[in-house]
Amino acid sequence: MSSSLKARLRANFDETNARLDRALDEALRNRAGLTMVVVSRRQPLAAIKAAYALGVRHFGENQIQEATPKMGAAREGITWHFIGQMQKNKVRKTLKHFQYLHTIDSLSLLSRVDTLAGEERACPSVFLQVNFGKDPGKNGLYPEEVEPVLEAALDMKNVNCVGLMAIPPDSASKEQTIAYFEGVHAMRDSLKEAYPDWPGKLSLGMSADFELAIACGANFIRLGQSLFGER
User: Which domains does the chain carry?
Assistant: First the structure.
């Protein structure tokens, strides 16, 4: 990565971190409760190394075949998050490389992850993906399906269900996005009452809406474009 690209990356990180800090201040929160996952899909290894030099330790990828070569050449000490749609025939390989899985969208997929994680002696941290708006064009559990899958997850030995993940519609207005995030937050709170030992973390927000997600209680945000720019 050239010096000019490194300078641009640093400028983007500085600007994004300033926005992030302002959002946390306005929400009366601090960094301790927030993890920034840097989405490095379609980014070269040099970009990952440059972000690492800026202090990033959590990276997100959405395709196994693209991610694994970069993982093998990247620095140690990175926590890898799988943020793409999971294919059942690639679960085993995913488990070999990723510590967090953000897109568990069915009981059958969760069960396969649990079975193969046992065989691989792994215990991934997983989020249940919620299709809060019941959009037929999106993946995820409908709201009424979440509790039974969560209950099953909490009985499994080889997965650690840490929370919920959701993505509002691409066309949502600011007000609609806030309502979507607040709805998922309320769902989480209700589930926490029934399952008080469940961590109940929220994976919400991307480059276009992370400030709204922070205001609505996000614990994990997934940022790519605001840091690396347009692909």
Answer: 3-228 (3.20.20.10)
For residue 3, pLDDT over 90 is answered with no
Compute φ and ψ for 200, nearest 5 degrees: 65, 40
* Alpha carbon distance 115, 78 (integer Å): 25
- The confidence score (pLDDT) of residue 231 equals 62
Q: What are the backbone dihedrals phi and psi of residue 84, each rounded to the nearest 5 degrees, phi first? A: -95, 175
Per DSSP, the residues of 39-52 read E-TT--HHHHHHHH
pLDDT single digits (tens) 173-206: 999 999 999 999 999 999 999 999 999 999 999 9
